[in-house]
Amino acid sequence: EKTVYSSNEIIKASGINEGENLLMLSSKNTEEKITTELPYIKSVKVIKKLNGTVVLEPKPAKVRYCIESNSSMLLADESFKLLEVCEETPESAICVTGIKPKEAALGEMLEFKNSEKLNSVKQVDSVLMKHGIEINGIDVTNLSNINITVKSKFKVELGTAKSLNKKLLYLVEMIEQIEKKNPNDEGVINLIYYDKTKEGIFKRQSIE
Question: pTM of the entire structure?
């Protein structure tokens, strides 16, 4: 697959030199070298051929999350591998706020100080992605008041992480019903009291 790197950059990052003994070449180490030095490569298939050549088939990494960290934005893929540090949020990325990553170098996996917040982010993304719901932002600043933005037109107040999976599945049904009545509707969906009422409240209003 096409990547942002040239063939020469990938070959150089592999550390493979002409004349090297292929029997001693570790495919795992080669992949680790490339994916660490070139963050936008997710994985590499290393194929050793009988004619003494090596074929490298890289798979590109794609930005999934944009995590606010001090005054910078950390771009990470679906596995939270750090791809880039920038100042702006890409439109296609899920903006995650309220979670602090530990220091990491480009190409390394991000680690976070609060595993509960990370699990909530992963759960929201997993459930809604499975049902084809576009996520714009996830705010886990307060685990008693988780907020997300979906489809660029619904702000969702989830409340606590309790029964989060059930709330998200109910949210999918709510969005379907709202859009069935009016595809252009936008507003706030309140699921804070879902545990007691088993219902959500939709309030039409402009979402900036």
Answer: 0.89
